[in-house]
Design goal:
Oligomer: single chain
Strand content: 15-25%
Radius of gyration: 23 Å
Number of helices: 12
Largest sheet: 6 strands, mixed
Distance between the termini: 44 Å
Number of strands: 26
Shape: globular
Structural class: alpha+beta
Helix content: 25-40%
Length: 475
């Protein structure tokens, strides 16, 4: 095999999204995955509104949404409902879709760029120098090495890439053990309301969450306060016993398709950029899967990293561009860890915790409280620092839901072609005002052309490409 420009370790949602972004930019990429077969298990079940917008920016949302189970009109914070309808987005809802279906689309789409996924190959060592990274892989044919300019670790919470680098992973271990299982029920009942959303009423019964996935299969999540080891396998008898102790309804189990255990561990890598090795997704951060943020955080890491890494590989990146991946995404990850820890506390079987929950429920029922927390959980409130940019309402935030002059549009109407290329400059409103938009859909400048601030933004974010664009515009 010819050595690639980038090796992506891990074929989960984060790694596959990153590989697609690199392929879109023409970067030679190889994905390495230790499992031999694509799994059908789905830890995550949703796409948040910001993730939907970003997939739509590439023209990938429609084929993904075709595989969805439903749209979920609300989000939640520790089970407290959140209204996404207050935001200017085409997707004021969650797309309910199993993670495995998202992965299948993303992996199949790699064929468009000729990017292989080396399944059954495990990373067993890596070394980097000033010119590149050498990865040692162990596969069906034994051990071999692969050389690339860069390597991205998207290989999960127990990341071998992170461990090989020796990057610190501060935080805390899990204090609570939970289990998740996909089960086939002998009946297909109309579920009682208390089974459809987490009740978080620990005194009455361990938290239980049962939701339909279609075809008689249900996702079941339950607390196991008596479980000593978070690594212990979840057996069928444990799942049956937990289902049999639920509130009121006693479903009969036909089969347990898959089961696993997880905790409320909360840790984050000290650095996402380590020379020529990058960390993304669960390799960079682990947290309680509260509010449905995990898959979305990783996919958004990949969108932020992909265009920057591609520009660096091509040699068109301005100085320091790749470093902004850490400076922008590390604070976002830290905020998710913080809010998931807060959500976990609201589930503590304690009188004071219930009092706090009642106060927060009241706050989230107000327009201001709902918008603040809904923006956080959905990813719609992210605003990156944009040095040397004007103080403008849109600078640093996501491209808004708008219509462009002359019938061209973004995120608007069936007649508007979504942006499916790495464009950076779009008209915003009639007149002289313009926006400069990064390939990940964030506004990095807004105002009138011909200003020093525009020149600075072009140079900072697009380097040589920005200079070529500016020169072309002047001609």
């Amino acid at each position: 095999m010819t050595d690639p420009d980038v090796i992506v370790v891990g074929a989960g949602p984060t790694g596959l999204t990153l590989a697609n972004e690199l392929g879109l930019a023409g970067v030679r990429t190889v994905v390495v995955e230790r499992t031999r077969e694509r799994g059908g298990q789905s830890r995550a079940l949703n796409l948040q509104p910001r993730t939907a917008e970003m997939l739509d920016l590439r023209g990938w949302l429609e084929p993904v949404a075709d595989r969805a189970l439903a749209t979920l009109p609300r989000g939640h914070f520790a089970g407290i409902p959140l209204d996404y309808g207050v935001f200017d987005t085409r997707f004021p809802y969650q797309v309910g879709i199993p993670q495995a279906r998202v992965e299948r689309f993303l992996e199949d789409h790699l064929a468009e760029y000729g990017i292989p996924v080396l399944r059954g190959h495990e990373l067993t060592g890596l070394a980097q120098d000033a010119d590149g990274v050498t990865a040692t892989l162990t596969g069906p044919d034994g051990e071999h090495t692969l050389r690339a300019a860069y390597l991205a670790g998207a290989d999960g919470g127990r990341s071998r890439v992170r461990k090989e680098l020796g990057v610190g992973f501060p935080g805390r271990d899990g204090r609570v053990s939970l289990a998740v299982a996909d089960v086939e029920l002998a009946d297909d009942p109309a579920l009682p309301a208390e089974w459809r959303l987490p009740s978080f009423d620990m005194e009455q019964d361990p938290t239980a969450f049962l939701t339909p996935l279609g075809d008689g299969v249900y996702r079941y999540i339950f607390l196991r306060p008596d479980q000593e080891s978070p690594d212990a396998p979840v057996n069928e008898a444990e799942v049956r016993a937990a289902l049999g102790s639920g509130p009121g309804f006693r479903p009969r189990v036909r089969a347990v398709r898959w089961a696993s255990r997880f905790t409320d561990a909360s840790r984050q890598a000290e650095s996402y950029v380590n020379g020529r090795v990058l960390l993304a997704g669960d390799a960079a951060h682990v947290h309680l899967p509260a509010g449905g943020q995990g898959l979305n955080l990783g996919v958004q890491d990949a969108f932020n990293l992909g265009w920057k890494l591609a520009a660096t590989v091509r040699g068109s990146a301005p100085p320091g561009l790749l470093g902004t991946y850490h400076s922008e995404r590390h604070p976002v990850g830290a905020a998710v860890l913080e809010n998931t820890r807060a959500q976990g506390l609201l589930a503590v079987p304690d009188t004071d915790a219930r009092a706090v929950r009642a106060v927060i429920t009241t706050l989230l029922s107000t327009p201001e409280g709902n918008r603040r927390i809904a923006g956080m959980i959905s990813g719609l409130d992210i605003r990156y620092p944009m040095p040397d940019a004007p103080d403008h309402l849109l600078v640093g935030s996501r491209l808004p839901n708008l219509r462009l002059p002359e019938g061209r549009g973004l995120f608007t109407g069936p007649e508007a072609e979504p942006v499916r290329r790495w464009s950076d400059r779009v008209d915003w409103t009639p007149g002289r005002e313009r926006m400069l938009v990064r390939p990940d859909g964030y506004v990095c400048w807004a105002g009138e052309e011909g200003t020093d601030e525009l020149e600075a933004a072009l140079e900072r974010w697009f380097g040589a490409a920005g200079e070529r664009q500016r020169d072309g515009a002047q001609k």
